[in-house]
């Protein structure tokens, strides 16, 4: 069991410093050429790996050009174009509906406010944060995906279970200049070391400050289950 620093703020700053040294090139892994492609890629990434999304969008972005193409697409044909993606039928509906709204209410442009983005079908706060940060260079929150959720609980940064509550805790302790990068660092570390099943604590740069580090501790703080 590691020993976390005295305050959650100190713990968070140390976590960011160490992970930045470990993953100096950390950034978003989804591939896109414009804001609409980013929005669609993030919608598709829900409960699906970025690698799979990138493979699927290679042909998708060649087939459909702009919001009008998606809004006017045949539902079954669009779903078939997404059939290797989890929940592809629902995501096809979200994409068509979101693009209809973008055409009708936003002159064909992806909106640049949290309220307007979260009014689009299939867009929650996490997706909106990604689009704001990487599409509009607006950082007003922290993207809480499954990796951020898992690592922030394991590292003792929050005891909350739901993304929006976790985000509020993190906003209080993550330096504002690191809000965007914090997510990318957690994703990289979550994929490489701090995996959901059987994390490699022996090779973790955070092990000595992690209260979930396997050893004397019996509980995974992310899940509450025994190791």
Automatic annotation (TrEMBL):
Protein EC: 4.2.99.18
What is this enzyme's class at the first EC digit? lyase
SMART domains (UniProt xref): ENDO3c (SM00478)
As recorded in Swiss-Prot or TrEMBL, the protein's gene is named nth
Annotated signal sequence range: none
Q: Where is the HhH-GPD domain?
A: 44-192
In its UniProt entry, the species of origin is given as Natrinema salsiterrestre
Q: Which GO terms describe its biological process?
A: base-excision repair, AP site formation
Q: What does this protein do?
A: DNA repair enzyme that has both DNA N-glycosylase activity and AP-lyase activity. The DNA N-glycosylase activity releases various damaged pyrimidines from DNA by cleaving the N-glycosidic bond, leaving an AP (apurinic/apyrimidinic) site. The AP-lyase activity cleaves the phosphodiester bond 3' to the AP site by a beta-elimination, leaving a 3'-terminal unsaturated sugar and a product with a terminal 5'-phosphate.
Protein name per UniProt: Endonuclease III
Query: What does this protein's record comment on cofactor binding?
Result: Binds 1 [4Fe-4S] cluster.
Q: Name one Pfam family in it.
A: HhH-GPD
């Amino acid at each position: 069991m590691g020993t976390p620093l005295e305050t959650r703020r100190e713990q968070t700053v140390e976590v960011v410093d160490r992970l930045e040294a470990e993953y100096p090139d950390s950034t978003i892994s989804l591939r896109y050429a414009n804001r609409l492609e980013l929005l669609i890629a993030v919608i598709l990434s829900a409960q699906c790996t970025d690698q799979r999304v990138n493979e699927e969008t290679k042909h998708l972005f060649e087939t459909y050009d702009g919001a009008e193409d998606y809004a006017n697409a045949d539902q079954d044909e669009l779903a078939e174009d997404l059939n290797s993606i989890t929940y592809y039928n629902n995501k096809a509906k979200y994409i068509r509906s979101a693009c209809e709204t973008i055409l009708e209410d936003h002159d064909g442009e992806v909106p640049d406010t949290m309220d307007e983005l979260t009014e689009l079908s299939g867009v929650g706060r996490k997706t909106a944060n990604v689009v704001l940060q990487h599409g509009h260079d607006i950082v007003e929150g922290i993207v809480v995906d499954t990796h951020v959720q898992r690592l922030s609980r394991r590292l003792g940064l929050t005891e909350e279970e739901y993304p929006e509550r976790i985000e509020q805790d993190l906003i209080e302790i993550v330096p504002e200049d690191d809000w965007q990068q914090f997510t990318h660092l957690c994703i990289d570390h979550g994929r490489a070391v701090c995996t959901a099943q059987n994390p490699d604590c022996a090779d973790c740069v955070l092990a000595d400050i992690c209260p979930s580090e396997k050893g004397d501790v019996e509980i995974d703080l992310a899940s509450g289950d025994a190791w």
